[in-house]
Design brief:
Layout (H helix, E strand, L loop, with lengths): L4 H14 L3 E10 L12 E3 L8 E4 L7 E7 L2 E15 L5 E13 L3 E3 L3 E5 L6 E6 L5 E7 L5 E7 L11 E8 L12 E9 L12 H5 L5
Antiparallel strand pairs: 1-4, 1-13, 2-3, 2-13, 3-5, 4-5, 5-6, 6-9, 7-8, 8-11, 9-10, 10-12, 11-12, 12-13
């Protein structure tokens, strides 16, 4: 069960985000159970970017990562932010060594509503983010990358890779450390996570936004 304080903490964060656009919906994220290198479970894989070998980062360890969809003057945007934990996988269900990273990813170009969620299509160096190592404070820049068919990120209510499930929110997307969208590394570099809708904070009503947020119901 999620901590009850999450909704309270997100109230201020949501209002802050709305200064740059209207918040459509927020989701708390979790590791997807069907990742290719699970265990340990993860929500982001970064082989070759954080070092040689298989590198995975868990969302569940800190349990504070949120995906927010906003409408910024008619342009849809997606932000993924929180604290991830992990490192090089040791092949025995753990890590060779592990550290925590502050993640802040923004998809601000080519975000579209596809009915059962949102997709980002077509490469743009404006889509991506940073991972800040909270021990060394070193910053790694990462960019959204296409899957070969133009898809960069999808967050859909379709139960992707979940047996007998067609309704869980699942996110998947591809990343690179190259600003031109190329991928020189071996292995895999991608998001894979599930999401749970966070009810709109009651403080929205004070700003006359309650009806707007409610209009984007989970289908």
């Amino acid at each position: 069960m999620r901590n009850t304080c999450i909704g309270i903490a997100l109230s201020a964060a949501t209002l802050s985000a709305s200064a740059g656009g209207l918040t459509i919906a927020e989701y708390q994220l979790s590791d997807h159970p069907a990742g290719g290198e699970n265990p340990p479970p993860y929500g982001l894989r970064l082989d070759g970017i954080l070092g040689a070998g298989v590198h995975t980062l868990s969302i569940d360890f800190h349990d504070d990562t949120v995906l927010t969809v906003t409408d910024n003057g008619g342009t849809l945007e997606i932000n993924i932010s929180g604290t991830l934990y992990g490192g090089e996988v040791d092949g025995m269900g753990g890590y060779v060594s592990a550290e925590s990273y502050a993640a802040d990813f923004n998809y601000v170009v080519n975000v579209t509503d596809v009915g059962n969620g949102w997709e980002v299509n077509g490469f743009s160096a404006s889509n991506g983010g940073t991972l800040t190592n909270l021990n060394t404070m070193a910053v790694t820049e990462v960019y959204g990358m296409t899957d070969g068919n133009g898809l960069v990120l999808a967050f859909l209510e379709d139960g992707y890779r979940l047996d007998n499930d067609t309704t869980t929110w699942v996110g998947r997307g591809w990343v690179t450390d190259q600003p031109d969208g190329t991928d020189p590394h071996a292995g895999f570099r991608d998001w894979l996570f599930t999401g749970e809708l966070i009810p709109a904070p009651s403080s929205f009503a004070l700003f006359g936004l309650g009806g707007l947020v409610a209009s984007r119901r989970r289908r």
